[in-house]
Design a protein that fits this description.
- By secondary structure, the chain is an alpha/beta fold.
- Helix 1 crosses helix 9, helix 9 packs antiparallel against helix 10 and helix 10 crosses helix 11.
- The chain is globular.
Length: 317
């Protein structure tokens, strides 16, 4: 049975229902990935590591994780802090903007509250947001943990997911993201992140930089454009199935990674995994919210993968 350990922060997501009402959901980059991984590979043990409070809202969050089938044994409780919160707004094209309330989030202290499992996993996933919310001693602790998991055979997966407001400076972000890149086997760089942090003007500059860090597999996310995969000296371009209507791009990249990891853990090639990831993201951006309703998701994904019947794909359960 495949297994994946995902470390990060889940938050309360607020989104406008109408001018006077907000919808409440739970979301966060690593949590979103965990959910879409589990939905696409139900047999996978997806263990989520985070910290929450002792209040009713935190319990609702844990209940939601469990309803999605996630392993919550490594979710810690803080007696002094609770969960973070954000408000998402979308424009007419589906592009989003965020307002955050997370400075006292329990997840910022998660490695001081959680004892990471001393066991083997097939994959371990962290993001740049995971790194950014932790203080320096916790970042060092996380790097040591990743090295230990890697020594035991885990594939370490990293998405830089750069959010400037979470960092003291660009230089701090650049230094730490580079260190976490060097600790991973599979990376999901984005052009906007690299342009902002490293002044990389094109994908060739990104790939050269990451090759120097000895990363085994690089999957370049490019939105609606082709996905570019660089693995063991081989470059593959994978076309993205077009989306009829974009409603909300809030968790497009997270959903893509969830679908990709699910396919890889199921034994499929990187090319098939990229197709699956793109299809998952294509479904998710067709509805509001980072985590779309499960029934909508399953039916829409089936329709989308059916249109890809000429290629090898895996369908959601």
């Amino acid at each position: 049975m495949p297994s994946c350990l995902i470390i990060g922060e889940c938050m309360v997501e607020l989104s406008p229902k109408d001018p006077h009402t907000l919808n409440k959901r739970f979301a966060g980059d690593t949590f979103n990935t965990a959910v879409y991984l589990k939905r696409n590979l139900p047999d996978c043990v997806v263990s989520y590591v985070t910290a929450v409070g002792n209040d009713a809202l935190s319990q609702q969050m844990i209940d939601t994780m469990q309803l999605e089938g996630l392993d919550t044994r490594y979710v810690a409780r803080s007696r002094t802090h609770t969960v973070g919160m954000y408000l998402v707004s979308t424009d007419d094209s589906g592009e989003r903007s965020f307002s955050y309330w997370r400075s006292h989030s329990a997840a910022r202290n998660l490695l001081n509250l959680v004892t990471l499992p001393d066991t083997c996993f097939d994959m371990v996933y962290v993001s740049g947001i995971t790194v950014a919310i932790l203080d320096v001693p916790q970042r060092e602790q996380l790097l040591r943990a990743l090295a230990s998991y890697r020594e035991r055979g885990a594939c370490i997966v990293f998405d830089p997911n750069y959010r400037p407001l979470l960092w003291v400076s660009e230089q701090e972000a650049r230094d730490w993201i580079t260190r976490f890149y060097a600790a991973c086997d599979l990376a999901f760089p984005g052009g906007d992140d690299h342009a902002a942090l490293f002044s990389h003007s094109d994908e060739h500059a990104i790939v050269r930089y990451l090759h120097n860090l000895n990363i085994d597999e690089i999957v370049l996310k490019r939105g609606a454009d082709n996905i570019e995969i660089y693995q063991q000296g081989k470059h593959t371009s994978v076309a993205v199935n077009p989306v009829d209507k974009v409603v909300d791009t809030t968790s497009a990249g997270d959903a893509f990674i969830g679908g990709f990891i699910a396919a890889r853990l199921a034994g499929y090639s990187s090319e098939v995994a990229a197709t699956m990831g793109a299809d998952v993201a294509g479904v998710v951006i067709g509805a509001k919210g980072a985590i779309v309703p499960a029934d909508y998701y399953q039916s829409s994904l089936s329709n989308r993968t059916n249109r890809n019947a000429s290629g090898e794909v895996i369908a959601a359960e």
